[in-house]
Write a structure and sequence with these properties.
By secondary structure, the chain is an alpha+beta fold. The chain has helices at about 1-20, 25-35, 40-60, 85-90, 95-110, 115-120, 125-155, 180-245, 250-285, 315-320, 325-345, 390-455, 460-495, and strands at about 25, 65-75, 160-175, 295, 350-360, 370-380. The protein has 13 helices and six strands.
């Protein structure tokens, strides 16, 4: 008795640990985890941030831009404002002047009147002495003038082999042919496109979660059905084996029932494998480890809650809700703005410019080896004249892309209209099938009860019982499929209407 009590306690603890290890999930919790952990949604959120930054960048094109430029250049030769002959002349300026003065003075002394020469001789002054005196004085003057000439040459020395330059430039667009306006509109549309893409990804994620969730529920119900069917055929197999031993049944009947047992075991194996794989997929969609032990809240419900048929929404309103159509509309609008940007290539562009420029050597103070600069303000106008039709061809190509995008959107509208009507019809059809499946369940249960009773009384063969069991299995399976079909058709309708929340 004591051993039995210990075994019972250990079994209870094991069952509790197994229950604790399994994670209970509802449809809402699966959706929440999928929206939180889905990689595609994370990518969509990053794309929205990228689009927002692109929009902010486009706004800056309206504002003035400030740029700083700087550079250094070394040259093998410097800029010379004087020619070599001019430098030579200026350097020998004094020598050339004094030589001419001395020559003219000597000639003048030689041509003095006789009376003057006699007078100079009487006072002891000879022409040669005067010429020597003049030559002595001109020699000092030549040196001074040569120095002045060399100073002029040195003053014109530029020393421009090492050049430093820098500038700060401010540019303000005034009119760019509408390109900046179109660019900003494209950025706004790009941000809207990213939001619509994220919404589409969100709805697709919810759609995948709902489908996988109800698939798991369906397989779990079919697992229990397969287990019940296996118990039925095993019980029948046991009864037939007893009847064979008593001689009231043939071995052929026993083999037929054994084949049904094997088929039931194989069906249960397939359902078990499918259930494991479906739960792995659900865990992956929810962002959990694929080997996580989970239990869904709807797995153990004998009957799924009935779903009310959603009234059909106006098709136009459904078209407004579909993110796919909104994306296509964004593409059409963006294509139009691209055409406007290309058209701007044939329009004049006006831009204000201003800034401050410095250089070393100082160009404004005789190439002084110091930085010096100046302010500048101006207007730049660019007018396209001839480009061989390049812009016109690009505009035509862009308009063609706009037409293609518009045709794609029209095609999508037609397909979505068809999808909405088909989804609404399938919801109604699924509810009808569910009602018929419930009626078939009642008939199959009664048929199986009658067959079992007749078999026990010996008035019905094993073949009839197996047929009744097969009909019961089919009716139960059809009921499960009908219930799941109702759920999935409702999800399909919500997705078609763009209202999947």
């Amino acid at each position: 008795m004591k051993n039995k009590l210990i075994a019972f306690i250990l079994l209870t603890i094991g069952l509790n640990q197994e229950a604790d290890a399994q994670r209970m999930l509802s449809l809402d919790s699966c959706r929440a985890m999928a929206l939180r952990n889905n990689k595609e949604l994370s990518i969509s959120r990053v794309k929205q941030d990228v689009a927002a930054n692109v929009r902010k960048s486009a706004r800056t094109k309206y504002l003035p831009h400030v740029s700083a430029l700087g550079g250094y250049e070394w040259t093998s030769r410097e800029i010379s404002l004087l020619s070599d002959d001019q430098k030579e002349t200026l350097s020998n300026l004094g020598t050339s002047l004094t030589a001419g003065i001395a020559g003219q003075a000597g000639q003048a002394l030689g041509n003095l009147p006789t009376g003057v020469q006699q007078l100079l001789n009487m006072i002891g002054i000879t022409p040669e002495a005067v010429a020597g005196r003049i030559t002595s004085m001109s020699s000092g003057l030549a040196t001074s003038l040569n120095g002045v000439g060399q100073g002029i040459v040195d003053a014109f020395h530029t020393d421009t082999r090492n050049i430093f330059a820098g500038a700060v430039v401010v540019t303000q667009p005034v009119f760019m042919g509408g390109a900046i306006i179109a660019m900003n509109k494209m950025a706004d549309l790009g941000e809207e496109l990213a939001c619509n893409s994220a919404e589409q990804t969100r709805q697709q994620t919810l759609y995948s979660i709902d489908q996988t969730y109800w698939q798991v529920v369906s397989l779990r119900h079919k697992q229990k059905l397969a287990e019940g069917y296996l118990d039925l055929v095993k019980k029948l197999d046991g009864d037939v084996q007893k009847m064979i031993q008593e001689g009231v049944a043939t071995r052929s009947e026993g083999l037929s029932v054994s084949v049904k047992v094997n088929e039931a075991e194989m069906m249960l194996t397939k359902v078990n494998d499918g259930l494991v794989l479906s739960k792995m997929l659900l865990c992956q969609l929810c962002g959990m480890p694929i080997d996580e032990q989970i239990v869904l809240t709807d797995e153990e419900n004998e009957t799924l809650d009935a779903v009310e048929v959603t009234p059909q929404m106006e098709v136009e309103q459904a078209l407004e809700n579909r993110p796919e159509l909104r994306q296509l509309q964004n593409m059409v609008d963006m294509s139009k703005q691209m055409t406007n940007i290309l058209k701007a290539g044939n329009l004049p562009q006006v831009m204000l410019m201003g800034g401050y420029m410095v250089s070393n050597p100082n160009l404004f103070n005789s190439f002084q080896r110091k930085f010096g600069g100046m302010w500048n303000v101006g207007v730049m106008v660019r007018v396209p004249i001839w480009n061989w039709g390049d812009v016109a061809y690009k505009v035509r190509a862009s308009k063609g892309a706009t037409t293609i995008a518009r045709l794609k959107m029209d095609d999508a509208r037609e397909k979505i209209t068809l999808q909405v009507n088909q989804s609404n019809f399938r919801v109604q059809e699924a509810n009808k099938k569910l009602e018929m499946a419930k009626v078939n369940i009642q008939k199959a249960d009664e048929n199986l009860r009658t067959a079992n009773l007749g078999f026990r009384e010996g008035v019905i063969s094993t073949t009839t019982v197996m047929e009744a069991q097969t009909a019961w299995l089919q009716a139960q399976s059809q009921k499960i499929d009908a219930e799941i079909d109702v759920k999935l058709s409702q999800v399909n309708l919500q997705k078609a209407l763009g209202t999947l929340e």
